[in-house]
Amino acid sequence: MKDIQQKAAGNVDLGTEEWIEQYGRFVYGLAFRLTTDVQEAEDLSQETLLKAWLHCPELKNPAAVKSWLRTICVNEFRMKIRKQASTPLSFTDDMEALEREGSLLTESIPSPVEEVIVSEEVERLRDGCFLAMAGKLPLNQRAAFSLVDMFGLSIPETAEILDVTPKAVKGLLYRARLSLESFFRDHCGILDEKNPCRCSAWIEFSNNRNALQRETRTRITVLDYRGTGYQPNEETRRQILHYYRNIPDRVPSQEWYDTVASAIGTFFKNNAEKTGLS
């Protein structure tokens, strides 16, 4: 950690690549679950690592580096969404209402769906669809759902990152899970064979799995169970959580690692020239 802090002070010869190798995949994994998009995940994780590198001297506890990186990544994600929004976004919900709904959250143990073995292509398509729909959740719900149900953090850890109470996190999770459940319960043929949407049909439609993600992103603006009259179904919720918690990690390309290292090196080279340290 001392080496990292020295580098942040202007010494660019101490293990930049090693630091990126150690934490790059961790940050990219979270960024992918937040953005649900490969290109956006690459951009967000690069921005996160660069910002972390610049602020290394502010890290007081080296043992907490992953927690620190998570906080930076989530904050960068929220700021990015706010800048992209065509209308102002509110990052605060009705705390009293959230905490009330948080009391309705029950512990749902993920339960795999009993299904026949499918091809890797169908699995990729299914995972892409689930990720695309998670991306349709309102901002704070998506952050809470990604951190807890996809990245595996505890509710107290998530509350600290989002700067809300644990009860509010439970409320965000309650809303997110119910919105996803209400959508998939009536659409996904994997959860119920009577439903119209089937991965195999999409593959027949197009061999490009991104077509499914583009279609779902276009047709649906935001997921919200309220006003639909949907009645919760615990078994459906458990099956959905099983899929979200088992979506495979994405590994960034070597080109991504090289780009991040280059960006950090360029910054410190320019900074050294400005301050006369070159």
TrEMBL record:
<feature type="domain" description="RNA polymerase sigma-70 region 2">
    <location>
        <begin position="20"/>
        <end position="86"/>
    </location>
</feature>
<keyword id="KW-0238">DNA-binding</keyword>
<dbReference type="InterPro" id="IPR014284">
    <property type="entry name" value="RNA_pol_sigma-70_dom"/>
</dbReference>
<comment type="similarity">
    <text>Belongs to the sigma-70 factor family. ECF subfamily.</text>
</comment>
<dbReference type="InterPro" id="IPR039425">
    <property type="entry name" value="RNA_pol_sigma-70-like"/>
</dbReference>
<keyword id="KW-0805">Transcription regulation</keyword>
<dbReference type="GO" id="GO:0016987">
    <property type="term" value="F:sigma factor activity"/>
</dbReference>
<dbReference type="InterPro" id="IPR013324">
    <property type="entry name" value="RNA_pol_sigma_r3/r4-like"/>
</dbReference>
<protein>
    <submittedName>
        <fullName>RNA polymerase sigma factor</fullName>
    </submittedName>
</protein>
<dbReference type="Pfam" id="PF08281">
    <property type="entry name" value="Sigma70_r4_2"/>
</dbReference>
<keyword id="KW-0804">Transcription</keyword>
<feature type="domain" description="RNA polymerase sigma factor 70 region 4 type 2">
    <location>
        <begin position="129"/>
        <end position="180"/>
    </location>
</feature>
<dbReference type="GO" id="GO:0006352">
    <property type="term" value="P:DNA-templated transcription initiation"/>
</dbReference>
<dbReference type="InterPro" id="IPR036388">
    <property type="entry name" value="WH-like_DNA-bd_sf"/>
</dbReference>
<dbReference type="InterPro" id="IPR013325">
    <property type="entry name" value="RNA_pol_sigma_r2"/>
</dbReference>
<dbReference type="Pfam" id="PF04542">
    <property type="entry name" value="Sigma70_r2"/>
</dbReference>
<dbReference type="InterPro" id="IPR007627">
    <property type="entry name" value="RNA_pol_sigma70_r2"/>
</dbReference>
<dbReference type="GO" id="GO:0003677">
    <property type="term" value="F:DNA binding"/>
</dbReference>
<keyword id="KW-0731">Sigma factor</keyword>
<dbReference type="InterPro" id="IPR013249">
    <property type="entry name" value="RNA_pol_sigma70_r4_t2"/>
</dbReference>
